[in-house]
Amino acid sequence: MNNRTCVICKKKAQTISLCRFVLLDEEIVFDLKHKIHSYGYYFCKDSFDCLNRLPKWATKKKKLRYIKSDFEGNNDNGS
Question: Which residue of 17, 20, 43, 54 has the fewest CB atoms within a 10 Å radius of its CB?
Answer without folding.
Answer: 17
